[in-house]
Amino acid sequence: MSEFNEPNPTLSENDTEESLNTAKETAECFDIEKVAELFASSLLEEDDVLLDAYLAAYEEIMRFFQLMGSIFGFVSSDVRSKIDILYELRKTDTEEQKNFETFKAMLVYERDANLLTKKGYVSGSRTLLRLHRGLEFFYEFLKRLQDLPNDEKTANVCRTAYDDTLGKHHAFLIRKGARLAMYAMPSRGDLLTRVCQDVQSAISKLPEMLANTRRAYDRTEQLYTLHDLHNLP
């Protein structure tokens, strides 16, 4: 399985405009409040995360990637496949379902059952790790986006967020293609208008969404560190 797919590096600003408009016609708007609520509800006790709520939040993030059109092609298709893999694990027989209810349960179960390196087995722990890395990119991009003036292009903050997160896990050619595609990113104002139904409401709710996203991210990071699973192949 690839980390994320290679983007189309030949997009012009006109291509981007058309891509974003087409994407918005075929998808609902991105709901920042929903992401905040779902990530908050995913937190279990002091050190665990509920898989179902996390995936529901990621479905909304997936909507954001889709609304951005071809620019984020390097992430959206693989995010979809990884979400679906985890859904399938949640559909296992009743006896095994409990092993995939939370992140901690899944990591411990797959490790203790020697499934992490089992040939032919699609590991939930490995799949979640890829989503975890994608979530860091999403978080860093929106965190940096919130401080931009509306008329400023988002290409630079998108590139730096990518370089600091997902780019560290990508091969050279994928990094090069992703960074080239980002040159066609719109201004902050245009981006928010295209992905959010009510821009002012979205801006006011962004800090809470970022805080809850970070909490879910940090818990996941701690679990992978605790079980020494950051380097799953």
From TrEMBL:
Residues 1-22 are annotated as: Disordered. SUPFAM superfamilies: Glycolipid transfer protein, GLTP. Pfam families: GLTP (PF08718). Residues 50-196 form the Glycolipid transfer protein domain. One of its GO terms (biological process) is negative regulation of interleukin-1 beta production. One of its GO terms (cellular component) is cytosol. One of its GO terms (molecular function) is ceramide 1-phosphate binding. Belongs to the GLTP family. PANTHER family: GLYCOLIPID TRANSFER PROTEIN DOMAIN-CONTAINING PROTEIN, GLYCOLIPID TRANSFER PROTEIN-RELATED. This is Ceramide-1-phosphate transfer protein. It comes from Drosophila pseudoobscura pseudoobscura (Fruit fly). The gene is LOC4803771.
